[in-house]
Specification:
Blueprint lengths: L1 H17 L9 H13 L1 H14 L1 H7 L18 H13 L5 H9 L2 H12 L14 H15 L17 H12 L10 H5 L4 H12 L3
Helix pairs in contact: 1-2, 2-5, 2-7, 3-7, 5-6, 5-7, 8-11, 9-11
The structure holds heme C (2 copies).
One heme C (HEC) binds next to helix 4, helix 5 and helix 6.
């Protein structure tokens, strides 16, 4: 009986995801709600992870099979919150965020593939990596006074905010300096307002602290 109910639930979830492409006004919020339902159903979650691994092949050469990026200018996707990953694909696809490769790739994935790939990478662990700079005390002070409110005490993020702990230093530095200079590739990010009164040095310090957070 219990089993049947699980299968019923599972099928219902799959149907809602499969039909996402067909329903024209299916919003990103609805897709994220569907994704959270899948995450809460063990069987559906496992099935999505398997599918995400198949579809994610396109991503592994840069972001790593286990979501730990292969180059310091590329972000880890491992342990990133799934809703954030999904929203960022959406931003690359609709031009809110721009990157030469990512903007092209994001347009080629269906909604269902984006959901599965986001769940796949969210399920992976971040590995410690060699960072080119030492952690900075000033960076810690800034983090604890300003960043923790959204990204959390340990920088693991939440459903609303991205995880930033353990990202490659180079990615963090470039990204934060882009927010400061209002680089058009990411000028619509709420982070532009957050960093506007900080200096380049403060951003480098906080990047070095966050890069070393486990
Ligand atoms: C050729 C290398 C390359 C490939 C292949 C690639 N990416 Fe990326 N990806 C990048 C780079 C570089 C960035 C950072 C862009 C920026 O600075 O905004 C990025 C950023 C992202 C982000 C935003 C992460 C964050 O922390 O904000 C997501 C999500 C993402 N990629 C998902 C994918 C997925 C899913 C695939 C496979 C379908 C993929 N990428 C394939 C290079 C790549
Ligand atoms: C008011 C909430 C808030 C505060 C405070 C905040 N952030 Fe953010 N941060 C966000 C949000 C929301 C995003 C996702 C933005 C997007 O979609 O571009 C983000 C994204 C980022 C990113 C990019 C993540 C990625 O994977 O590309 C970095 C790096 C970052 N924040 C660092 C910091 C640092 C360092 C501080 C403290 C100086 C800080 N944030 C303070 C809300 C906040």
């Amino acid at each position: 009986m219990k089993n049947r109910r699980a299968i019923f639930l599972f099928t219902g979830l799959l149907v809602s995801i499969f039909s996402a492409r067909v329903v024209a006004d299916e919003t990103v919020d609805e897709l994220i709600r569907d994704m959270i339902h899948i995450e809460q159903n063990e069987q559906a979650h496992q099935a999505a992870i398997v599918q995400g691994e198949e579809r994610g092949i396109l991503c592994f050469s840069c972001h790593g099979r286990d979501g730990n990026s292969k180059r310091d200018y590329i972000p880890n996707l491992a342990s990133q919150n799934a809703a954030y990953l999904f929203t960022q694909f959406e931003h690359f696809a609709n031009g809110i965020r721009k990157d030469y490769v990512m903007s092209k790739l994001a347009k080629q994935l269906t909604d269902k593939e984006r959901v599965a790939i986001a769940l796949y990478f969210a399920d992976k662990e971040v590995k410690p990596r060699q960072q080119p700079v030492a952690p900075s005390d000033q960076g810690k002070q800034l983090y604890d006074s300003m960043c923790f409110a959204c990204h959390g005490q340990s920088a693991h993020g939440s459903r609303e905010y991205p995880r930033i702990a353990g990202q490659p230093y180079e990615y963090l530095e470039t990204t934060l300096l882009n927010f400061l200079s209002k680089n058009p590739e990411r000028a619509q990010s709420p982070m532009v307002a957050v960093v506007q009164n900080l200096t380049e040095q403060q951003l480098k310090d906080v990047a070095s602290y966050v890069a070393h957070m486990p």
